[in-house]
Write a structure and sequence with these properties.
single chain, mainly beta, Jelly Rolls, five-stranded antiparallel beta sheet, four-stranded antiparallel beta sheet, 3 helices, about 40% strand
Length: about 180
């Protein structure tokens, strides 16, 4: 008979058996190098396109096409860790180098020096922990980009933010049904 206390106890951070951020990044890079898969993604000149993939160890994964001038807007991944790698083209990630509280606020004023920006071209990627807030952009005026993303645990939600200067405002919380 199962121990009910064990089944009822939530996992402590870092004690689950899922893939870590480095394993997710390895998967994203390997998958981004699969030219047959990357070229199978239909590209739309006006909006992002995607294909859901089987990620490692029960993770959620996506192949995403980015038309010129598109982006995600500021968001987090609901406590999931993740990684992404650019398969084709170039993406810019703007992120915050600070852990934000996940509950109990609608507006925060960010301190100076928390902004980070990196450009990721073919094959380059990045992993991140469960409190990562960022936006991903295709700043090109004429070239699509394609990337691979993986998250564990599978995304329970995404928080969307707006940003004006140092002010970050929670705008909405999306559930998985809204992006599948």
């Amino acid at each position: 008979m199962p121990d009910v206390r064990t089944l009822a106890r939530p996992h402590a951070a870092g004690q689950d058996s899922g893939p870590g951020a480095s394993e997710l990044l390895d998967f994203a890079r390997r998958t981004a190098a699969d030219s047959a898969l990357v070229t199978s993604l239909p590209l739309d000149p006006e909006g992002r396109t995607w294909i859901r993939l089987d990620g490692p160890g029960g993770s959620e994964a996506w192949l995403i096409g980015w038309p010129p001038g598109t982006g995600t807007g500021w968001h987090d991944h609901g406590g999931s860790r993740g990684a992404f790698a650019t398969a084709d083209g170039e993406l810019t990630e703007q992120s915050l180098a600070v852990q934000l509280p996940t509950e109990g606020w609608k507006t925060l004023e960010l301190a100076d020096g928390v902004d980070r920006e990196r450009t990721l071209s073919d094959g380059r990627g990045r992993a991140f922990g469960p409190h990562h807030v960022h936006q991903v952009l295709n700043l090109s005026h004429d070239t699509h980009a394609v990337s691979v993303h993986a998250y564990y645990p599978p995304l329970p939600l995404m928080r969307r933010y707006s940003r004006t200067g140092p002010v970050l405002r929670l705008e909405e919380v999306e559930s998985p049904e809204e992006w599948e």
